[in-house]
Design goal:
Solute-binding_3/MltF_N; signal; alpha/beta; 5-stranded mixed sheet; Transporter substrate-binding domain-containing protein
């Protein structure tokens, strides 16, 4: 069964250098002010499109926290839900959201069951032939974490000879093997075991997904043991090229409007508000 929801309306540049993202340092613990990434070039100018859609129906899931999920009262909420609402407010478009299973989203968009997918649909070669994608609005970097008392020993770049825990077979393990062969990898069968190894002091550092690590650092399972070291790592080959909104190939008007809306939300500080609301520890 699908669900329709009407969204009520009120009417740091990231560059990569051999995989390293040059951004402001992310906060180490929950409660600090998250450093907000900026994926839009401030030197480029973008005027409001001559046409904007009167109505946008977004397609999303409801089982992808913190992006889109049901709260305790079964209300749909999340970063994607609020981002869709903010885009519609900026574009002065009426807005609705239709919930589908993630695997059904591409076919639903092609079947005209909605106008745009906002659900972390990856821009693979196959999907890039079927759809057009907006500019990136969020990337998912790899991050190093260390025990809090050791944070001053690491600059976020030099890890040669350091024993680092990773999940066995993960893209983060593959990244280190390819980009940092001098790191002493210690592979564990699960990401939780790799993190626990750091918490117990069995390794000097852990490398993994920055987003989920930000929640681990701020949660009970970490026992406040650890902290990020400076600098996220971005590499399209291993971590993908970021989250985008997908539209049909013939919908140039909507694509231009969404790109304009994303830029305006960043310029107005609305994007920063949403990022800090849903990612309070921050992962950039």
């Amino acid at each position: 069964m699908v669900t329709y929801l009407v969204l009520a309306l009120s009417a740091l540049i990231v560059n990569s250098d051999e995989g390293r993202a040059q951004t402001a340092d992310a906060p180490a613990t929950a409660g600090a002010t998250a450093a907000v990434p900026n994926f839009w070039d401030p030197r480029s100018l973008m005027e409001r499109p001559a046409q904007t859609p009167d109505r946008i129906q977004f397609l999303a899931t409801d089982d992808f926290p913190p992006f889109s999920f049901r709260d305790r009262s079964e209300r749909l909420t999340g970063f994607h839900v609020d981002l869709a609402r903010a885009l519609c407010e900026e574009l002065q478009s009426s807005c609705s959201l239709r919930v589908k299973a993630f695997e059904a989203l591409p076919e639903a968009l092609e079947a005209d069951e909605g106008d745009a997918v906002i659900a972390g649909l990856a821009k693979t070669e196959e999907l890039a032939r079927r759809f057009r994608f907006t500019d990136v609005y969020l990337r998912l970097p790899g991050r190093f974490v260390v025990r809090s008392e050791d944070r001053g020993r690491f600059d976020g770049v030099q890890f040669a000879g350091t024993e680092v825990s990773v999940e066995r077979g993960s893209r983060h393990a593959a990244f280190l093997k390819a980009r940092m062969p001098d790191v002493r990898l210690k592979e564990y069968d699960s990401v939780s075991a790799a993190r626990d190894a750091l918490r117990r002091g069995e390794v000097a550092a852990h490398f993994g997904d920055g987003l989920t690590l930000s929640f681990w650092l701020g949660g009970a399972l970490s026992e406040e043991c650890c902290a990020f070291v400076p600098g996220p790592w971005l590499d399209d080959r291993f971590f993908g090229d970021g989250l985008r909104i997908a539209v049909r190939t013939d919908d140039a008007v909507l694509l231009e409007a969404l790109n304009y809306g994303l830029r305006r939300l960043q310029e107005k500080g609305i994007y920063a508000e949403l990022y800090r609301r849903y990612f309070p520890t921050g992962f950039f």
